[in-house]
Amino acid sequence: DYVWDLEINNIKYVYDYAFYQREINSLTADNVKYVGKYAFAENSKIISVKMENVENIDEHAFYRCTSLYRVNIGENIKEIKDFAFYNSWVENSLTQVYINAVNPPTIYENTLPAMYWNDSNIVIYVPYESTSSYAKADYFKNYTINSIGSIYNYLYVYEIINNNQVMITNY
Fold first, then answer.
1. 101-158 tens-digit pLDDT
2. What is the edge-to-edge ordering of all strands in the sheet holding 13-14?
């Protein structure tokens, strides 16, 4: 079996079930605006997703992608529907969600993986000036919110923690 590192450069819409149960290791979709229902769902191999210009991610788009640990979403995101990145608490590997939008997008109760007794190891990284608005936003307030530090070609060089600590994350 072949596992893809999928780069989608000139497509704006990934429709429902487009890559359902396909073995993809990583996804870079810089010009995609919309990701449909179950578009990448039930893929046990995918570990990272980067979507620089996505605006809407439909329900179940990355449902049960149990190895997915990092998601990087650009500044244009408006809505991430229910169950878009959902895994059960036991199956979940997702720990890093980077959202570059200044205004929190709309998310729902089950957009992100399930929590066990309000315990989650998911950290959502957002622009520094937006940490308080994300921390107050519906459903985001259930997760740890940290600020994105410096971005170099969408690789995060550092993050600011509690306004007075810097942690090097990549170089």
1. 999 999 999 999 877 656 668 899 999 899 999 999 999 988 889 988 655 445 555 6
2. 13-14, 34-35, 56-57, 79-80
